Amino acid sequence: MREKIKETAAHLYALKGYNATSMREIAKEVGVTKASLYYYYESKEELFFDIVKDSFAHLVQMSQQLADSDQPVWSVLSEWVDKIISFSKVKKDNWMIINKFSSGTIKDRIFEEFNNFWKESFNYLSKILQKGIDEGMIRKDVDIPILTGAVFGVLHGCCTVIYRENIKIDDNQMRTMVLGILEGGIASHETSK
Question: Which member of 103, 106, 118, 169 has the lowest number of beta carbons within 10 Å of its beta carbon?
């Protein structure tokens, strides 16, 4: 039941915004009474925060698994791109509400959670990119923090713009575009002698 509540609430939050969505409306869409909804979540804020926290936890776990992979760096980055695209498509509503921080104390809580997510994801992606530098597959003339921020920003930005603007693009086009940008910008162009 909690998953159904979270999916329904995420859809309504993404569609109407956090402030314009009531617990009564969420209960009605789920098909339960408002009192039943309060059995699972004591407030609209707690429900919203649970959605955001789950999304971040999923993305961090995925990043950790890829950072620990023994695959070559471009295979890992390709898989990372695929998984982010898949998450942002399957959990489009979650993706959109993460990018629409609301106001008040919930904003502070989400910002704190986002900072934790960013640090963990940043560290895992840095590990992936360092492996690529060590393999000679990624250029070594850019500092890891700058490189990591740029790579993270490319994919996150593409997904956000595409979903916010409702741009029609299939997964393969998205994957090709993002990997092309990454390969054109961060791939090592040194030739071995």
Answer: 103
Q: How confident is the model at residue 124 (pLDDT cuts 50, 70, 90)?
A: very high
Residue of higher predicted confidence among 124 and 142: 124
Contact 129, 147 (CB under 8 A): yes
Residue 122: exposure state from Cβ atoms within 10 A (0-12, 13-18, ≥19): middle
The number of CA neighbours under 13 Å toward the Cβ of 162 is 20
Q: Domain 44-186 is in which class?
A: mainly alpha
Whole-number Å distance between alpha carbons of 125 and 81: 12
